[in-house]
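Worked example 2:
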Amino acid sequence: MHFSINSTGLTVMKILVVHRQKLVADQIKSALNDNSPVVIYTDSGLDGLLTSRIESFDLIICGTDLPVVTGFELVRSIRTNSVNKNVPVIFIADQVDAKTEHLGNALGVAGMLATHDLDNRLAGIVNDSVKPEPDKIWRDIVLKSPLN
């Protein structure tokens, strides 16, 4: 995980949101407000894929029905060729049906949510799936530094 410390000294997570609608990214940020996340937003699977290959994230949240590269293709590519191979992924779909569940489970996603469940269930899934590793928290590195 690549949590960082914000100006208030709190650990924040960096989230990549890949969805057609910017409103969904805003809704995610609002639902996770207690975590004060840094949210990077892209509106296509291709842009999300390119972003995930060059930048590290703590969590990736993506829609299943994306332009150019679908959410399923995005996650499959992230799992095979990305700096985010082991980062938890949450799928968001208009409706979570058997096909979405089957593909999500096959790809090892941390959770699958219907868009209307974001406010109620997202924070719980994130709290269960996204855990900082002590050696990756900047505060630990700073406190153990020989300069202190």
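The beta strands are 4-5, 11-12, 14-18, 38-42, 59-63, 89-93, 111-114. The domain at 4-134 is CATH 3.40.50.2300 (Rossmann fold).
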